Amino acid sequence: MWSADEIVSLCCEHYSTKLPRKGMPESGREWTLLAAVVKIKAVPEEDSASSGERQKASKEVVALGTGTKCIGQSKMSKNGDVLNDSHAEVVARRGFLRYLCYQLLLAVRGEESSIFTPGAEKGKWRLKPGLSFVFFTSHTPCGDASIIPMMDREDQPCQPIRAEEPRLTAAPSTPRHGNDKDHMSESEPVAMDLRLKRKPEENNAGSSIKRIKTENSLSRSSFRAKEKGNQVSESQGDSSGQALQKEEATTSEQGPVLSGSASKSSLTAQAEVLDVHRTGAKCVPGGRQDPHQAGAQYHSVGQLRVKPGRGDRTLSLSCSDKMARWNVLGCQGALLMHYLQGPLYFSAVITGRCPYSDEAMRRALISRCSAVESLPPGFTVSSVELQQSQVEFIHSRRLLDENHDPSKGKVTPCGAAISWCAVPDQPLDVTANGSKQGVTKKALGTPQARSRICKVELFLQFRELVASTPEEQLPDSLREKDLKTYWDFKRAAVGYQQAWQALRQQVFEAWIRSPRELLQFE
Q: In this structure, which long-range contacts are made by residues 500-508, counting pairs with CB atoms below 8 Å and at least 24 apart in sequence?
């Protein structure tokens, strides 16, 4: 029906051709992350079967987000009018909530919704047959999914935590890479260097994507970590003296582990001296903490983490943690569960070109929740499909580092976040520091300064949905109840709250919950 490259290319094309420049990174100096939700509509099987080809599908971007920032706890608002988390994955998902709410509004008004059809229960709706949604992120989600073997200097979604580390000894006959300064100083030898030769890449600044040319299947372009262990092999000699690449090893609880005959025969260094890509997200209080030892033992894997913020500590869990939660509770949230027959799960998560480990992604999004039991009917630990593309987002940090002009200043993440979704009323929303970009200090705290995807705006859209629902079609969970505040409506979604309680009690006990006073707005 689709390939990972097709999905990523579609999202990158949408970003570069259908959005204005407002909120995009400053050329030559800034980078950002991109995430999106793509609607997949399968062609009826009889139509595709008659053509003798693989089943075809239409693909449409319905929500898109960019961003890398997060506000601190002290800047959170009790009125729900500040966007707390502006990481691309969160922005894209909140735009998707706008899209879902709009489609439900069409349905309850008796108009044609492109995705919903009546469910079995009164007032409930379900997806039309043949529809699914795929989630794309240009980089592995910050937090647990980004703790993977580090074989070269690569872009990371959060600034790495720095610490003094003892010197590590390079394996005999392995060349060192002098440009790896994220975690080691120039004087410190690199633990291990697994490199593969590649053909030079052309820098096409006019395109929103960059396709990778490789000489073999272990190129740095895919960074794939096989479930049965990575196999690392050396490429054939190349007289052109071109750039070298590396293949990542898998990461286990004790650190990266190399497996496969190629690894054992070609490497003399021990697995425990490998370093890992580090995440700026810190372990939540009360849970297991990072040991901060040298190399691969720097992080503890599988832990809940909070994102770094500007100044004071944030209450925002990492994107890895939030996506793991969506994979159990659904991506629709508590409010929309009032109207849905069951939770909505992404059918696949596609990652763009970046350092990548299938094992780390599987651990972060699926495996650590796999033992959850006693979920309410309809809820499950979704077996979401995980894939990586060889298409790179044009505004990635790696491409910026590769082509950076020092005269333009220091490389820095873009301070703005873009939200776009397929709705007719104000589909585009650009924010900075949790409010609409460009608003004056005088306007802060007013409706004019709100992002369209902040809590109170999404709540107002939901209240419009409830008000537009004919009395006889109102879901039972919203009948004859004194529901006023945002928290009242969330709490009334009983099945969702039961599933969330089971997940917290069995897996995410240390999950940081927002103070209740921040959820009492109307």
A: 500/325, 500/329, 500/334, 502/372, 502/373, 502/374, 502/375, 503/325, 503/328, 503/329, 503/369, 503/372, 506/371, 506/372, 506/373, 507/368, 507/369, 507/371, 507/372, 508/304, 508/321, 508/325
Q: What is the pLDDT along the chain (522 residues), one digit of tens a residue?
A: 899 999 999 999 999 999 999 999 999 999 999 999 999 999 876 655 555 566 789 999 999 999 999 999 999 999 999 999 999 999 999 999 999 999 999 999 999 999 999 999 999 999 999 999 999 999 999 999 999 976 544 444 554 434 333 333 233 333 333 333 333 222 222 222 323 333 333 333 344 443 333 333 333 333 333 333 333 333 333 433 333 233 333 333 333 332 232 333 333 333 443 688 888 899 999 889 999 988 888 899 999 999 987 668 899 999 999 999 999 999 999 999 999 999 999 999 999 999 999 999 999 999 999 999 999 999 999 999 999 999 999 999 999 999 898 988 999 999 999 999 999 999 999 999 999 999 988 999 899 999 999 999 999 999 999 999 999 999 999 997 899 999 999 999 999 999 999 999 999 999 999 899 999 999
Distance CA 37, CA 135 (A): 5
Nearest to 266 by CA among 296, 226, 236, 231: 231
Residue 396 DSSP SS3:
coil
Q: Is 350 helix (H, G, I), strand (E, B) or coil?
A: strand
Three-state DSSP state, 117:
strand
This prediction's pTM: 0.78
Cα-Cα end-to-end distance for the chain: 43
- Just list the catalytic residues: 89
Containing H/E element for 245? strand 244-245
- Give the separation between CA 492 and CA 336, rounded to whole angstroms: 11
